[in-house]
Amino acid sequence: MVVGEFKPGLEGVPATLSSISFVDGQKGLLEYRGISIEELALKSSFVETSYLLIWGVLPTKEELEAFEHEIRYHRRIKYRIRDMMKCFPERGHPMDALQASAAALGLFYSRRALANPAYIREAVVRLLAKIPTMVAAFQQMRRGNDPVRPRDDLNYSANFLYMLNEREPDPLLANIFDICLTLHAEHTINASTFSAMVTASTLTDPYGVIASAVGTLAGPLHGGANEEVIEMLERIGSVENVRPFVEKCVENKDKIMGFGHRVYKVKDPRATILQGLAEKLFENFGHDDYYDIAVKLEEVVEEKLGHKGIYANVDFYSGLVYRKMGIPIDLFTPVFAIARVSGWLAHWKEQLEANRIYRPTQIYTGTHGESYIPIEQRS
Ligand code: SDX
Fold it and tell me: Fewest beta carbons less than 10 Å away: which of 105, 168, 312, 313?
């Protein structure tokens, strides 16, 4: 076996063959199954886009209706999962609650009949259907309330916002939220998707695959950045403070949250669409000063770091949209997870077809021939 050159973070190292999505980091392009993210954001829905990502084709009207019906049917969670979640500490992070409850789904549905297409479809439907319910249930329970039951007369996004806030959302809000889910659904081999792939390659159950991915997405350098962006805007506090803030970050080589990307060396196309959604929200539901700070921040970061290929990424404007929707800041990353379950499931299914367990190698930097030293002789 020839050992290749070591690349920190596997930067630029292809880890799989995949036809699910494509990113051109120099041109700022993102396609799901060959369709541009701009077209899907404008014309599709999150559920239809999930079908496209997972089964590789746009569904017919009948196929989409059947898929939506199955998801509606499976939105409820077992009372045992709900009772387990009641034991979670209110102050626990919702991503930890989601990881635990996603893994717990395996206790009820695991069976690991991975060769059976019906089992694959059941797992896809159950995870897409139940993850939003569990996020909303945790939010209600940590406020001391019973979970709000899903409503079959509401579509995927409207139902989530209804379970979260116990009131029917404005149709424009629900539509904007659905576009946000589509934008966050998939993004080639990012850290959490790679986590899902490695777990999937051992042929474990899909619930464990999603739990692995949730744990990976929670990190502040990955999905957790959207929370950090809002906290950063709060710390900056005014447009006047932006330039000194950026200059200090550049001087100290501090990472500015919501900027930079391993692949994009221009503005993330999702950030452009999210910025437009933020503007639409503020036009219809009232302005937000944080937006002015964000626009100024993007301008100064581009001036200071654009030459290094550091531009706004998907997390920069998403937090502003979610905050305007009244979504609590520590639920921003769980919302990212609700969307990315779609992409994780697509890669899980693709890995089953690849059927090769991940087992990379290393370049050993340790020593050989060391002796065991009895504890009394150690200093
Ligand atoms: C997501 O991979 C995906 O597709 C992820 C994602 C998805 O959809 O799944 O797109 C979602 O994770 C978006 C990224 C969200 N994270 C953040 O916004 C956190 C802040 N960004 C960074 O931590 C960073 O940009 C990363 C982690 C996203 C990417 O980092 P890299 O590619 O490992 O780059 P690096 O850390 O090696 O930095 C290269 C240079 C360094 O400067 P030099 O030492 O060369 O002088 O760029 C600088 C870094 O200091 N740099 C930044 C910076 N990001 C990189 N400087 C200031 N602010 C930043 N945000």
Answer: 168
In a domain, 373, yes or no: no
Q: Which of 184, 187, 261, 347 is catalytic?
A: 261
Q: What's the whole-model pTM score?
A: 0.96
Residue 256's CATH number: 1.10.230.10
Q: What domain range is 59 assigned to?
A: 21-220+330-354
pLDDT (0 to 100) of residue 2: 63
List all residues whose CB is within 6 A of at least one atom of ligand 1: 9, 187, 190, 221-222, 225, 253, 255-263, 305, 308, 310, 313-315
| Bridge partner residues of 24 (DSSP) | 29
In this prediction, residue 111 carries a pLDDT of: 75
Query: Known catalytic residue: 315?
Result: yes
Query: From the CA of 313, how far away is ligand 1's center (Å)?
Result: 9
Contact between 179 and 41 under an 8 Å Cβ cutoff? The reply is yes
Residue 260 alpha carbon, nearest atom of ligand 1? 25
Residue 31 DSSP class: E
Average pLDDT per consecutive 10 residues, the chain (379 residues; last block may be shorter): 83 96 97 98 98 98 98 96 94 96 92 88 98 98 96 98 96 97 98 98 95 96 92 97 98 96 96 96 93 97 97 95 94 97 97 91 96 96
ipTM of the complex, rounded to two decimals: 0.97
Domain tally, the chain: 2
Nearest CA to ligand 1 atom 35: 262
Per the CB < 8 A criterion, the answer to whether 5 and 237 are in contact is no
From residue 207, how far is each of 112, 127, 216, 219, 331 by CA, in Å? 10, 8, 14, 20, 21
Domain check: are 195 and 307 in the same one? no
6 within a domain of the structure (yes/no): no
CB distance 47 to 67 below 8 Å: yes
